[in-house]
Design brief:
The protein has 238 residues and is mainly alpha-helical. It has one domain. The protein contains twelve helices and no strands. Helix 6 runs antiparallel to helix 7 and helix 7 (142-152) runs antiparallel to helix 8. The longest helix is centred in the middle third of the chain and has 24 residues, at 84-107.
Length: 238
């Protein structure tokens, strides 16, 4: 099922990038951009592949998040297993995996436009999703997506982030907040007129929903784990 979903994604999604990646200044500039994309893309993928959640969990509490909890190396599972500070540290490190490659594309020698820099960010996202260090398994792309959009469109990210936090606060479900963040990015980009980033946002939306498909099933069945319920259980025990 997962293979079929990915085949569909990578067949359809490239088509939505075509309108925003047309060269505006002639073939010479396009060749230079493709060259810099070839230079920046592989390091972005390698950086995205670094499993900071695994490193943080092993260093601070001696556990392997791939074997415990939700068996995911993302910030949420690390927070459950090792505490909120370790989860926040993982979140920051995973966000930097998206932030640094995009900043290098925007402000480095290649001077990419935002839509081309988004492709570099996508390389980092793919590294996070399919880490070369974890047998091409990985996280769920939310934190790294935050890092990608931070330099590309901070106002849009701020609005989506506030919606995400509101959903987590009201429901206690981190997965629901993550899904709302991904789903709202294209909406806020449309509202604010940042159409050149819409293909990237739609790609992120598709990838996040595919990686969260088990969470979606549990949310619909009322079986998803809630941070609020977990906190209340701790209070009762104490």
């Amino acid at each position: 099922m997962r293979k079929k979903l990915y085949i569909l994604l990578f067949t359809v999604l490239p088509l939505i990038w075509i309108p925003v990646l047309r060269p505006e200044d002639g073939p010479r500039e396009l060749e230079g951009t493709l060259l810099w994309l070839a230079v920046l893309g592989p390091p972005a993928y390698i950086l995205g592949s670094v499993p900071f959640g695994l490193l943080v969990a092993r260093f601070f509490c001696g556990v392997d998040p791939r074997l415990e909890g939700s068996r995911n190396v993302g910030a949420t599972n690390v927070a459950r297993l090792c505490g909120l500070p370790c989860g926040i540290l993982t979140l920051v490190c995973d966000a930097l995996k998206g932030l640094l490659p995009v900043c290098s594309a925007l402000y480095g020698p290649g001077a990419f436009t935002p839509q081309w820099a988004g492709l570099v960010g996508l390389c980092a996202l793919l590294g996070h999703l399919h880490s070369v260090f974890l047998g091409f398994r990985g996280g769920k792309a939310v934190a790294t997506s935050i890092g990608v959009f931070l330099p590309l469109s901070f106002p849009v990210l701020l609005l989506s982030g506030l919606l995400c936090l509101l959903a987590i606060w009201r429901s206690g479900y981190v997965s629901l907040g993550s899904l709302l963040l991904a789903a709202s990015l294209p909406v806020f980009l449309l509202i604010l007129g940042r159409l050149e980033l819409l293909p990237l946002a739609l790609t992120v939306l598709a990838l996040v929903f595919v990686k969260h498909r088990e969470n979606i099933k549990r949310l619909l069945a009322g079986e998803e784990k809630s941070f609020l319920k977990r906190g209340r259980e701790k209070e009762r025990k104490s």
